[in-house]
Amino acid sequence: MRRIAISVAATSMSVMLAGCGMLNATESSDDASPAKGDDITLGLLLPEKANTRYEEFDYPIFKAKVESLTNSKGKVEYANAEADAGKQANQLQRMIDDKVDVIVLDAVDSHAIADGVQKAKDAGIPVIAYDRLAEGPIDAYISFDNELVGEVQARSLLEVFGDQLSISDKIVMMNGSSTDPNAKQFKAGALSELKGKVTIAKSYDTKDWKPENAQANMTEAINAIGAENIEAVYSANDGMAGGIVKALEAAGVTDLPPITGQDAELAAVQRIITGDQYMSVYKSYPDEAESAAEMAVAKVQGRDIQFDALTRERVDSPTDKDIPAQLVPVVALTKDNIKDTVIADNIYELSDICTAELKAACAELKLN
Known about the structure:
By secondary structure, the protein is an alpha/beta fold. The protein has 13 helices and 14 strands. The chain has helices at residues 53-69, 85-97, 114-122, 146-161, 181-194, 211-225, 238-250, 266-274, 285-301, 304-310, 339-343, 350-353, 359-364, and strands at 2-5, 14-17, 41-46, 75-80, 102-105, 127-130, 140-144, 170-175, 199-205, 230-235, 280-283, 313-316, 323-328, 330-333. The strands form three sheets. Strands 2-1-12-13-7-6-5-3-4 form a nine-stranded mixed sheet, sandwiched between helices. It has a three-stranded parallel sheet with strand order 9-8-10, with helices on both faces. The chain has a two-stranded antiparallel ribbon with strand order 11-14. The longest helix has 17 residues, at 53-69. The protein is globular.
């Protein structure tokens, strides 16, 4: 069993490892008499649209998996909060009023949504935290190993320098939103690798993860440090990496420093091919979304053995302890493994990536 404590302060995060047996999630024959049938309604609340993954991958993959698990009888009631915590609270309340059978929640603000989670619990509706650990009495949590994400990003930057790495090398850190518990974990993981090896000249917590806010922050960093003195940029996700590139280009930088990212957005994959972005973190959205659907359906149908097999890890939030969880692994995406990741997993077609403008760059990487 892997146990992760997630608190308000990233520095108080702790990880403990201990042995734990695992039951294959597909072996659920002794759950043959579910509490409910296939005619169920699942609520799915996603946080925003600035990151393209939610509309393009998470929602459609989740919906398709629910249909396959319920013989097309299960329904998904979907809402996107567009980075508005108040709007999401209203969406959650509407689902409670509609008496959905279970709610899968990716919180805009993990603390602010706690009251809504409690209301769902009081109404007898299970809540599964998706991608971000919401506060309140949630029944389970599924996400990627977020501290590992930050570690992978930071290690990738350090590897660029090789033997030339120096504590005098200046790095800008563009972290995610302060209201997102995942951002705290990414940051903590990155700092565990960067501290003592480079100089973090500027660090920002980027409001709402918005690329335009990252661009403004990066412009400020360039003015304070000097573009020629920035050796690398840690960007917590791809959307912000795009804003960072715009700021650097506006400052006249033609030879861009290595920039990290996360989410393997199409634009980021193309930037990696052209050399404008060094890497991204590929997270298998099919694995996460499909597992979340399996967890939600198993919870509603009372398939306890299957649910336990899908949530064999445990996490602590600021309000609750020993929350059943599943942590999905991640992969560093560079120009060397595009075929083995986003193409192999059918996230993108080769034709989506290698447009006419990128034909020569793709050919150089033998992607055509």
